[in-house]
Specification:
316 residues, 2 domains, elongated, binds iron/sulfur cluster
Length: 316
């Protein structure tokens, strides 16, 4: 599975000062699951080392200027950013991790300097990041800094794995029945993000207007990508856990019931991480061989070794 990464985050010495910004989580953990495709628009046109650049407010416009010599490099940087963004489609990426704060790669809150000695404001977006966002609004995107937040990290990686899954699924030339199966397997994962989104997807699958399958699949793809870009919440997840519990509550003892319900409550109260409850639910799912639950992506959304649900901070 390929993801794009700002090259300096991989340890490549492509920063303006000839250094790198290696990110440990990316190079140590994510490297086991992804093939990285490095991008550095600045290095292509300015080489390394080079003069630093920054975003500068000029009237209504935001320009890119060199920091010391004050040269306007907006056009060059914008052209190369467009070129690099076009490359993403050819590289068939499932997501992109961008370097924060950069006037080229920063996704949000990049410093914008004022021409008249006024203080800078954190309100900009890097030129390359802007191109990616505009060209691929549904591609999973995050900055390396935000991935230190367990909640954003879990949501982002779940999004990437689901993103890859739907594109693989669509390549298999699926039938309507296949679409129903695919949709069913995402029921609880999407419910944990938004009930409305799952309902909307359900209406597309039901295809009351009897449209050609090709159109249904295209509409489903867009709505699915929108749904997986939403963030999950503790309260939605809590409801899902109770739902799943409902499948075997009549099959287990009073003590077992009490134990599961206590775990679900402890998850809600941020005492134990979600993985503990999931382990329990998976155990009963296997014990009673409940096929409907066995295929639910919510219970196994990505390789468990990523351990993204092993902290209480992964849910808000
Ligand atoms: S932030 Fe982007 S443009 Fe700057 S060095 Fe890193 S990859 Fe290159």
């Amino acid at each position: 599975m390929k993801i794009g990464v700002s090259s300096c985050l991989l340890g490549n010495m492509c920063r303006y000062d000839g250094a790198h910004s290696k990110d440990q989580f990316i190079v140590s953990t994510l490297k086991n699951y992804f093939e990285f495709v490095p991008y550095c628009p600045e290095k292509i046109i300015f080489s390394t080392p080079r003069e630093a650049i920054r975003l500068v407010q000029e009237g209504e416009d935001i320009k890119v200027m060199t920091s010391n010599t004050n040269k306007d490099v907006t056009k060059e940087l914008s052209d190369i950013s467009k070129k690099c963004a076009n490359q993403i489609q050819e590289d068939e990426l499932c997501g992109f991790i961008l370097k924060s704060k950069s006037p080229t790669c920063g996704l949000e809150r990049v410093k914008v300097y004022q021409n008249q000695n006024a203080p800078s404001e954190k309100k900009g977006i890097g030129l390359f990041a802007k191109e990616i966002k505009e060209k691929y609004p549904l591609l999973p995107l995050e900055e390396e800094g935000r991935l230190n937040d367990a909640w954003l990290r879990e949501n982002f990686l779940m999004q990437i794995f689901s993103y890859k899954h739907i594109f693989e699924f669509l390549k298999t030339n699926p039938s309507s029945k296949d679409l129903v199966e695919f949709h069913t397997s995402y029921k609880y994962l999407i419910y944990a993000k938004s009930h409305e989104a799952y309902k909307h997807l359900g209406n597309i699958v039901a295809n009351h207007q009897k449209r050609e399958l090709e159109f249904v699949l295209e509409e489903y793809k867009v709505a699915f990508l929108e749904a997986i870009s939403l963030k999950g919440s503790i309260s939605n997840t809590y409801n899902i856990l109770l739902h799943i519990f409902g499948y075997f509550k009549k099959l287990i003892t009073k003590e077992e019931k009490a134990e599961i319900l206590e775990s679900i409550d402890e998850f809600k109260d941020e005492i134990i991480p979600l993985i503990v409850v999931i382990k329990l639910l998976n155990l009963y799912t296997k014990r009673f061989d409940i096929q409907y639950l066995k295929v639910q992506k919510f219970l196994n959304p990505y390789p468990k070794e990523l351990a993204l649900r092993s902290t209480v901070k992964a849910y808000k």
